Amino acid sequence: MTSLSFLDACFEGVVPSILCTLAADGTPNVSYLSHVARLGDAQVALSNQFFSKTSANLRGNPRAALLIVDPRNGTQHRLDILYRGSVQGGPAFDRMAADLRATSVQLGMADVMRLRAIDIFDVLDVRQVQSDREAAPPGPPSGQSLARALAVTEALMRATALGGMVDAVLDALASAFGHEATLLLLHEPARGCLVALGSRGYGTSGIGAEVPLGEGLIGLAAQDRRPVRVGDASRLRRYGAAILAGSEQEARTRSVALPRVPDAMSQIAVPMEAQGRLQGVLFLESKRRMAFDAEDGLVLSLVARQLGLAIALAEAEAGDATPLAPSGQAEVARGRSAQVVHHAQDDSVFIDHQYLVKGVPGRLLMWMLDAHSASGRIDFTNREIRADAGMRLPELKDNLETRLLLLQRRLEDKRAPLRLHRPARGRIRLEVTARLDIVSDRNPS
Amino acid sequence: MQSAPGCLIDAELAGFLESPVMIIVGTGLGGVPEIGRGLGALVEAGGAALHLVVSAWQWPRTVSQARESGTIAITFARPTDYVTYQVKGQVEWIGPLTPALHARAARYAAEIAEVLAGLGMSPELTAPWRSKRDLVALRIRPQQAFVQTPGPRAGHALAERTG
């Protein structure tokens, strides 16, 4: 019997599987089903959603025939299976429920398809269906996975500062996987969303773009804390594709458009975690069909965890840094002036009517600008920002470095007349190249 | 409820069954089910019988079980929008293809390959589902037809013939 583990591609849900059961009187019932999962080497699970006739048949006669298809070459495999029972919980159920949610979200049917139970079957036999053209056998895994993981983690290991780590991982992923585009997003627990911190392969950087938890592939991977993968997006609704990325749109919505590969066929979103906390999501897209397989999911999970740990370490180290040096004073900028507008309601900041950031990075920027306008300060330390109770941002304790990086990159993206620099670990320098006219609607504290 | 002969497969359903839709076949013998694929269908005028083309080389057990048990289920699903119908019936006869059925099978194979290609699955990828070796024709008397499009109406009987 062919080992089920060689047939992993058949369980991707790309080509629908077929199930046949028999009624008590022997009348067959044949139907398509979208979700079949492999449970170890001797069992499969089917999602039990609409198939009432199938369920009734299986209660009378537990024998069923299953046909699964390898989406890489069309090879068909026939499984003889025996119904063992249904379960409404457990790891296999959770995994299938997550897969189903992913499908529902892509089809724009979120909340429509709820998994009630999964049916567990023993696999009695597996055989390949003969065909005129003998497709090349799927063959063993390429063995490149570990080499890819190593290449990416090696690049990560060599990087020192947080910004360098993010860039190193994005670059190394692009060359290791050869896919079109990558997005790295951070978890923003206070607002229940993910914020893009860096990208490769899109026309725009998308830094600052947000994805609510639970929305789309990225939001689902974060919510369920498990990798979510699509291998054939041709039939999926390209929702969101029409949203134009532009300054006008950004200012109106106080948000940055999420960058997309409009004709992506494959996507994978992998959660980034450290110390039991969700830190963000790595998201890869490709125009190739089936660009990411199950093993890539494992490899990317390893990479994401390494990156998560590295970020956590960078945060911790930055907090230890000693403040030093006399604080620099700003030279009074001459020439052009720029208007900075802050809305306290969501801490959104606009520079010359262009949307910059909101939330924690907005609050951070305003805190530095206040000190700058009061005393001309341009040098700040990580430690004093953490210590300042006025920030009232408990979540900054572990997230300050990533938020500073987000702010720094967004200022660069917008070619703003003020920039952040990191002259040394734990230190921040503000560069102001225009006379700032700062307006905020917050209550004076 | 008894329907008048010919009502089970009306002209509209016949048009659907003969269009480029995926055709999957269920049979069973001695409590053991089998799955196969069809390579085109033709509805007799009036809808009283359905002719199904199957490769006996690729799906030998489908053909042998249909011959021995006489019961069959065929699901027709349109890949572009998942509109799906299942027809269940009695296999009355299995034999060689008429020239008309040969032409039907050839046209079906070409058309369904094109539809699937339009959905991103290349003809090379889907070719293993369309063997043309040892084609046989099954003449089926339909007895039940069900809507199986995913959704709340899935499984509803479209029509049933008890006679």
Describe, in short, the structure shown.
Chain A has 445 residues and is of the alpha+beta class.
Portion in helices of chain B: 25-40%
Average pLDDT rating of chain A? 84
Q: Which pair of chains has the greatest number of interface residues, and how are they split between the two chains?
A: A-B, 42 and 42 residues
Rg calculated over all Cα atoms of chain B: 15 Å
Q: Compute the gyration radius of chain A: what is it? A: 26 Å
Pfam families (chain A): GAF_2, PNPOx_N
Organism (chain A): Sabulicella glaciei
Domain GAF (chain A): 161-321
InterPro entries (chain A): GAF, GAF-like_dom_sf, Pyridox_Oxase_N, Split_barrel_FMN-bd
What report would you give on this structure?
Chain A is an alpha+beta fold. Chain A folds into three domains: 4-128, Pnp Oxidase, Chain A, CATH 2.30.110.10; 145-320, GAF domain (Beta-Lactamase); 337-440, Arc Repressor Mutant, subunit A (Orthogonal Bundle), CATH 1.10.10. Chain A has helices spanning 52-60, 91-106, 145-158, 162-177, 216-224, 247-253, 294-320, 360-375, 382-387, 396-413; strands at residues 17-22, 28-33, 36-39, 43-48, 63-69, 76-87, 117-128, 181-188, 193-200, 210-212, 228-230, 266-274, 277-286, 337-343, 348-351, 354-357, 379-381, 418-421, 427-432, 435-440. In chain A, the strands form four sheets. A seven-stranded antiparallel sheet of chain A has the order 2-1-5-6-7-4-3. A six-stranded antiparallel sheet of chain A has the order 10-9-8-13-12-11, sandwiched between helices. Chain A starts with 16 loop residues before the first strand and ends in a 5-residue tail after the last strand. Mean pLDDT of chain A is 84; it is low at 236-245. By secondary structure, chain B is an alpha+beta fold. The termini of chain B are close together. Chain B is 25% helix and 36% strand. Chains A and B meet through strand 1, strand 2, strand 5 and strand 6 of A and strand 1, strand 2, strand 5, strand 6 and helix 4 of B.
